[in-house]
Amino acid sequence: MEEIYKKLDTIRDVWNYNIWDYPYCQSEIKFDKEAKTNYFGDLMGYFHDTLDMLKEPVSSNALTGVFSYHVSLLQTLYVQQDFIDELLRLFATGFNKGDLKKDVNYSINREIRNELVGHPIRRDKTGKLVSSTLFSYDSHHGKIEYLRYHQEKNFEFETVKYNVEDILNRHTIFLNTWLDIIIEKLKSVVNKHKSELTKIKDKVYIIKFESLVCLLDQKYKPFLENTYLYEKDSILKIYEKRSVHRRYRIVYEQFIDDLVSSLNEQINSCEEVFTRRFIVYDNKTSNLKPLFNIDEDGVIHIDLPIKKRNLGRPKKDYNYPLQKLIDSSRRNYMDFNFFSGSILSQCKNKIVERELNRMRQYLNDDIEYISSYRLICKILKTH
What we know:
15 helices, alpha+beta, 8% strand, 60% helix
């Protein structure tokens, strides 16, 4: 069952990181108006919750508890079969419910559920009685048993028995088989994503910056949207000013560094998305020396690491006030004066002082405010 959890998580990872923000990946699946509602998230959450239900033990050996467990079990399998059908459709695998019906691990369990839970009184399309069923009092948590009266047997009484373990084993095989088919399709989607990202990376240093930003807007838009000043119009204005002052050049250079780093990270993610949840780490015994040992006389010796002596002056820490200055919820004169004052009380750098004054002047202008902020951060890191 753990393998199934990992496969579901892998499918969700591909949806979140390779499909949701990238139209050229969406074009590889059935990403229609319904998909844009992100009902996929509801489906996967429900799938996880019902998997957990399959692991729940029977709460009671009383017949009502046993019957309740059997109904819940069969209905859970039925729902998960429908989820697989929906995922096959969503990811445009080329398979449908007709193909599922050919899988005995699907059809046998489906028939048990339909006969006992879905339609205990079954009629054909003309309204003619086909069968009726009734739970047997000989059922127990490991065995589903019911009485059946079917037209094929002239409605003569018969007892039908199924081992719960066999039902669960069939369902596990069914889920693994079809989740593997879905993942195979998603591999082609991820390969396309990786190919597009690699093309962008190859062009970072060789095409005009304006063309690069347009390319990112088309192919890698999340990068432009998720960072201060990297939005298309803002970063183009920064680029135009890069020769005017150091503060703008710092933002531009950081943009390029962040872009390459982000692309590398995303490309690596494409390479690992189908394997990282299945890596088994060795829990080998550490060779570290124990913190204590006992000598021949029974005396305990505690071997603690030597505490380093701080011989220099304490290093100034500007992280806290800097974090508050970039916090959009703190972008007001009262907070700005307080946190900028905290920095100036420790730092007498004239450039820092000038850029802080400038930030106060451009409190509501992201481009100017954050450009000065980036310059201050760079200075204080080496201060």
